[in-house]
Amino acid sequence: MTEGVRRATQGERASDGGASDARTGRDGSVALVYERAFTANAASQLDRALDVGAERSVLAILYRHDVRSWTTALRSHCDRVDSAAAVAVGPTSAGCGRDDAAVRTVSDPTDLTGVGIAVGEWLRARDTDEEPVVCLDSLSTLLQYADPERAFRFLHGLRTQVRSADATAFVSVDPGAHDEATLGTFRALFDAVVTGESATAETDDGESATADGRPVATDGGASEAPDGPVSGSE
């Protein structure tokens, strides 16, 4: 087991050696969540995002789940939610009316810049006493509309904004939908890799990740993209 994997398993951020837990409040951490598409649902993703004692403000970036399923899941978690909003992208934006004040729609799923602007506006609107968390429900679906390079730049910008806001973010991906080279490239952006109940992953040294939701591995690599606003453009 590499030193980076060991520290991540113990809840430390492998990239800098400092204390970090991607599930424990406002620390600017970003976690990549491995979960199979057929088991990933809005309720389980909310459970993960709200797995802290305090109420949280939640923003969902919906590439896979529709607004109705997200709203239904929110109702069952209302005791742990301070406020909630969503960015509904592409097909998930269908049926969103003008009265859906908490829902921002981006009809073109290739418009990563538009998605990034919506996320940035929501983060800047948070009060200092709020604990914001951003959930991207499916990186795998996003990759159907953007090549890996554009997606990487988008996630790099998202990470920058989340850290600047001292928020937390979870990005879900189906590990069975991508080869190890692609997954390894994206892992470099994250503080930890978390596995869902039915997903297994391998760390960079080939060791299996646990399946109990603990952060288990990062490679600590530095990304090549420059810091800046969230955007998928060059």
UniProtKB/TrEMBL annotation:
Coiled-coil blocks: none
Gene3D superfamilies in alphabetical order: P-loop containing nucleotide triphosphate hydrolases
Basic and acidic residues: compositionally biased ranges: 1-15
InterPro entries: DUF7504, P-loop_NTPase
Region annotation (Disordered) ranges: 1-25, 197-234
Protein name: DUF835 domain-containing protein
Organism: Halosimplex litoreum
